[in-house]
Specification:
Blueprint (H helix, E strand, L loop, with lengths): L3 H5 L37 H16 L11 H4 L17 H8 L11 H10 L5 H9 L3 H13 L1 H29 L9 H9 L1 H33 L6 H15 L5 H28 L45 H12 L7 H6 L7 H27 L14 H39 L7 H23 L4 H32 L7 E3 L4 E3 L1 H4 L4 H9 L5 H34 L15
Antiparallel strand pairs: 1-2
Helix pairs in contact: 6-12, 6-15, 7-8, 7-13, 7-15, 8-15, 8-18, 9-10, 9-18, 10-11, 10-16, 10-17, 10-18, 11-16, 11-17, 12-15, 12-16, 13-18, 13-21, 16-17, 18-20, 18-21
Subcellular location: Membrane
GO cellular component, one term: membrane
Keywords: Membrane, Transmembrane, Transmembrane helix
Length: about 600
């Protein structure tokens, strides 16, 4: 464990500052300031990241809290805006901010230590209340869960959803622990990929950024399509379906102009309450009206018993609503696995947890917001999913608010769902554009950072392009549940259940491989590793850290966790691909048509 005297002063003790150890294990011959390094500099050691992270955490502990921040209401009603954390010297002009934004190894602009650190502080404005609502701003999770129960049955559905909830909370804790140990004002973490880079190297960052970009753009596309289906239902199918989808892509051009997460906090606040209202309306409609038989071909029953449970008889009468205590007879496990992927969709927020923490005034508060958000998601989503499944059984569709037959209730639910969904899509698009822009345009093409005036203008132009790409990709796939399963199996599952334990193993192995006296010295820029000087290999050092008395049990549990997540991801990928293959084989239409998939 870290000792208090290692972080109380200016830096960690370097083996009691003994003269005979001054040159042991030196990696950097001279001190290089953080602002003089490239954004992703491979020469920065783990010890240096960890040293500055400890200093930043100590400084954050000293920030005074307002009386409002310490109350329950700060979680329920987040403040509209915040000036950021700037206890030293505030950057007064945009020119100064631009100066900081353009510095680095490839730029000779002189930037002081205070300017560099304050530029990072100024970007941290989000509070725990805003983060709570950002995590719970979700449209695909709650409304896909009834479909999951319909394909898995009461018992397996409840059991799996509960297990997924517990593991998602654990993964959120792991990401928080890693972030707290690696993020600092000197070396701020901006994305999930930054965690991978600092622990595994560039290849992990590229992998994470690629999967994250795919998930975010498909999430936006999925919401555009689900909103298009809702709008076509509201218009009684008199409006061409592809036009209904296009309308929401255009709306996204406007919503996507919100740039900071703190400003999204209030939108997210409204979205959560709208979501709950939509859920209550949908439950009322399901309890007092028949299922929407016109959408039976898109229901869970279409995958059960060869579709006989949703096929009308000669007189045009549909079978009665049926539920199952165990896994329904689907003829194969594909439908049930596809349903399980819908349950996983409810816990897809882990993918953007580092981005949320990166804009928090106090990242330590993330844990409270995350626990509250996950408890909220588990209780309300579970209640809603079981309620709808109980009343609609095999006729449950995805998203579930489209399965109400009473037009008045159906329309009310659709309107609220569309409003909530476009806010969620705006959030996904916001982070998606930041990931692409910062890791592609800034790094490869040297585009101006988004914090500069030029970057803000580029943001305005990029948003329509991003939403247009999302619409084109999602609209070309003919099976909504199949597409959500693909996203869950290839992206969401890994960000929530695979990457957190994998990154945690690397973080803990490196952290606990440091011995008494090891660490980074900011005055000389040197790193002391006594065992390295003694000839110990890097691999042996990491194994020793993995087997450390403090955390060997957690590392062993994480290995099992990773293997289980990979096995489930393989099953999910196979099931979703088979589902989409059957959809294309049966010539089921894409979204580039006028007839809505819900219209018979």
């Amino acid at each position: 464990m870290e000792k208090p005297d290692e972080i109380a002063g200016g830096g960690p003790r370097l083996h009691d500052q003994s003269a005979d150890k001054e040159t042991v294990g030196e990696i950097s011959p001279a001190a290089v300031k953080p602002q003089d390094r490239a954004v992703h500099d491979p020469s920065v050691s783990f010890e240096e990241y960890h040293y500055y992270a400890k200093q930043t955490r100590l400084e954050e502990e000293k920030y005074p809290r307002t009386s409002y921040e310490t109350t329950f209401w700060s979680l329920v009603f987040p403040p509209k805006s915040d000036a950021g954390v700037q206890p030293v010297a505030k950057i007064e002009t945009e020119a100064a901010a631009d100066k900081v934004a353009h510095t680095g190894a490839n730029n000779n602009v002189a930037v002081s230590d205070d300017e560099w650190v304050n530029a990072s502080r100024a970007l941290r404005t989000a509070t725990r209340g805003a983060i709570f609502y950002l995590i719970t701003t979700d449209i695909l999770g709650p409304f896909g869960l009834p479909y999951a129960f319909a394909t898995m049955g009461w018992g397996p559905g409840i059991a799996l959803y509960t297990v997924f909830a517990g593991l998602a909370i654990y993964s959120g804790y792991l990401l928080w622990d890693i972030f707290m140990g690696l993020d600092s004002y000197q070396y701020p973490i901006r994305s999930f990929g930054d965690l991978g880079y600092r622990l595994f190297g560039p290849w992990m960052r590229y992998l994470i950024n690629t999967l994250q970009s795919i998930q975010l753009v498909l999430n936006v596309g999925l919401i555009v399509i689900s909103n298009g289906e809702a709008l076509s239902q509201v218009a009684k199918f008199r409006l061409c379906f592809v036009v209904c989808c296009l309308v929401w892509a255009i709306v996204g051009f406007l919503v996507g102009q919100v740039r900071t997460l703190q400003k999204f906090g209030w939108l997210a606040n409204a979205a959560v309450w709208i979501n709950l209202l939509c859920m209550f309306i949908t439950m009322g409609g399901a309890a007092h009206s028949a299922p929407n038989y016109a959408g039976a071909n898109s229901s869970a029953g279409a995958t059960i018993a060869n579709g006989t449970l949703v096929t009308p008889n000669a007189a045009g009468v549909y079978p009665a609503v049926q539920t199952s205590g165990g896994i329904p007879d689907t003829g194969s496990f594909i439908a049930s696995v596809t349903g399980a992927m819908q349950a996983i969709f409810a816990y897809g927020g882990s993918m953007v947890f580092p981005e949320f923490m990166a804009e928090m005034k106090r990242p330590k508060d993330f844990l409270t917001a995350m626990w509250a958000a996950q408890a909220f998601i588990y209780f309300w989503y579970m209640f809603y999913g079981l309620f709808i499944y109980g009343y609609q059984g095999q006729y449950t569709v995805n998203p579930s608010y489209l399965g109400i037959s009473n037009y008045g209730i159906q329309t009310a639910g659709n309107v609220f769902a569309m409003l909530s969904a476009v806010i969620a899509a705006g959030l996904y698009g916001n982070i998606g554009v930041k990931v692409l822009y910062n890791n592609l345009f800034v790094e490869l093409f040297h585009a101006p950072p988004l914090t500069t005036r030029a970057g803000k203008y580029i943001w305005v132009g990029l948003i329509p392009v991003y939403w247009a790409i999302a619409f084109v990709l999602a609209a070309g796939i003919p099976n909504f549940s199949g597409l959500t399963s693909v996203v869950a199996a290839f992206c969401i599952l890994h960000f929530t259940y695979t990457f957190p334990p994998l990154l945690s193993i690397a973080f803990l192995a490196k952290k606990f491989s440091m011995r008494e006296g090891d660490g980074f010295d900011p005055t000389t820029g040197s790193v002391t590793r006594q065992d390295q000087a003694a000839g110990e290999t890097r691999f042996k050092r990491l194994v020793r850290g993995f087997l450390s008395r403090e955390r060997w049990w957690l590392n062993a549990a994480n290995v099992v966790y990773i293997l289980g997540a990979l096995a489930l991801a393989g099953l999910g990928a196979y099931a979703s691909i088979e589902t989409l293959r059957d959809a294309f084989k049966s010539n089921r239409t894409t979204s580039y048509v006028c007839k809505s998939p819900l219209d018979g």
